[in-house]
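Think of the structure tokens as a kind of shorthand, similar to the way a musician reads notation: each symbol stands for something richer, in this case the local conformation of the backbone. In the example below we present two proteins back to back. Begin with the first one, reading the sequence and then the tokens, and try to describe in your own words what changes along the chain.
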Amino acid sequence: MRFKIILKKSVNHFGIQVDVIDEGKILEVRTCYVSTTLNPTDKNHSLVMEVETPSGYKFDYETLKFLAKFKKGNLQSIYLQNADSKVTLYFQVVPYKTSCVDLRLIRFVVIGNLFSGSVFAYDFLDNSRKAQVFYDVPDSPDICDVCHNESIPVCDLEICNKS
């Protein structure tokens, strides 16, 4: 038996670039975005951007309050979710030139083998137009950085002491 499978080519409708600066317990995350497929004269589209933190981090509430108060660029509203580990930003229009948002993340617990953070952007009126990128903490701790005693089951102190 044979099957024909038609694969649809995935297109990123937004250019997203994430720059991360690690300052110990604080991460400075600059997220830049731009539409790559819409006509610049079309102003009928809104952008939604969901930013999730790497594991062990939360968004700095004061930074978000500052963004909400001054509403940089065409930023319309900000919603904090998932115990401060996800922020959703709503923009009035999809930008046709590169725009950036600066966010600050605070590490609240040291975790070895972190999960990456992500940025997911989509057009509010046409959610088939979307893009997603992942970002990592530059000097993320490994499991030996968090193992301090033998009572933690996943810690192999012999391996950690050798390295």
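Once you have a description of the first chain, move to the second and do the same.
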Amino acid sequence: MIRSDYRSLRPTSAGGETCVARPRPPSGTPLRAVNEKPKYEGNLWAEGMKELIHEIKQAAPEMRFSGVISIFRDDSVVFSRAFGYRDVKEKLNNTTSTRFGIASGTKLLTALGIGVLIDQGVISLGTTMREIDHDYTGFVSEQAMILQLLTHTSRIYDYYDEEIEQDYDYFAVEIPWSALETPSDYYPLFKGKAMKYPPGEILLLQRRICFPGAVDRETDRQALQGICA
């Protein structure tokens, strides 16, 4: 009997995940043949896939899985179904075309984009927020540099403050998540807010691990300045 690995799925309420499920080859299939095109065609494959799809339809709701599960065979879609909400608060359902937010997964892409602008001479790591836009004040220091933004030392206002918010699954902001599609859409969440600390302040974890000998904030500032120089 062909079984699936669907039980490896885990529910998520902060975005979604995609699983491409493939049936296991019959018992005794040589390891070298696992990645080859399956030879067990016909009714056996169809029956196994029918069972797999049936199990997915049962298990996903029971696990409160939120996301999209798709099964492909070569270039053909065998099964594709969306489960759960793309916006829990607004009760908006996921669809098979939902584009899921990947949160901090975009940091690398942001850094690459900034690197291109630096190579082109448009900005530098020392460019300050004041040089970029005079309206970017309050929620971040006008003296905060690109380097500090990239290294999480700009101390820009954070609408999700881990010291205050404890339940990420049900965290919401003034704007529905489904309406936050571009970076510009996030600007209202920052406008009029206040930064927590001056730029350059090092987080507690960084102080204790990277600079265990630093005993006060002035020492920390000097250590950071040495890195940024």
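Compare your description with these statements about the second chain. Confidence is low (pLDDT under 50) at residues 1-23, 29-37, 222-229.
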